[in-house]
């Protein structure tokens, strides 16, 4: 496979566009990329999952900001990431 291929920039752009179109067509599906029950989507959900108050859940969110996926006011966090954060030795909030 030691071949030299001579092409133009336009042909490279066309090849890339074709590959991207194929990838997007194949990767687009009706199924969401996650299972709804794997994620918590509100402070109330986090509080219920942890068995604590909304205030404590908000403190947990502030401390472990890196595990929360947030866009604007909406966020999601995996239940498994919450459990892993609880198992870590760091405190959730200052006393």
Which key terms come to mind for this protein?
95 residues, mainly alpha, 48% helix, single chain, 4 helices
Mean pLDDT: 82
Side by side, the strands of the main sheet go 1-3-2
> Which band does the percent of strand residues land in?
5-15%
Low-pLDDT windows of residues: none
| Tally of strands | 3
N to C succession of SSEs: HEHHEEH
Number of helices: 4
CA radius of gyration is: 22 Å
Determine the N-to-C terminus distance.
65 Å
Describe the sheet with the most strands. 3 strands, antiparallel
The coarse silhouette is elongated
Structural class per helix/strand content?
A: mainly alpha
Helix percent band: 40-55%
List the helices and strands and how they pair.
Blueprint lengths: L8 H19 L11 E2 L2 H8 L3 H10 L5 E3 L2 E5 H9 L8
Antiparallel strand pairs: 1-3, 2-3
Helix pairs in contact: 2-3
């Amino acid at each position: 496979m030691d071949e030299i291929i001579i092409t133009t920039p336009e042909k490279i752009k066309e090849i890339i566009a074709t590959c991207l179109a194929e990838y997007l067509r194949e990767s687009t599906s009706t199924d969401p990329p996650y299972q709804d029950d794997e994620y918590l989507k509100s402070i109330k959900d986090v509080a219920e999952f942890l068995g604590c108050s909304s205030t404590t859940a908000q403190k947990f969110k502030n401390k472990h900001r890196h595990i929360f996926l947030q866009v604007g006011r909406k966020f999601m966090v995996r239940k498994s990431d919450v459990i892993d954060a609880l198992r870590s030795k760091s405190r959730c909030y200052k006393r």
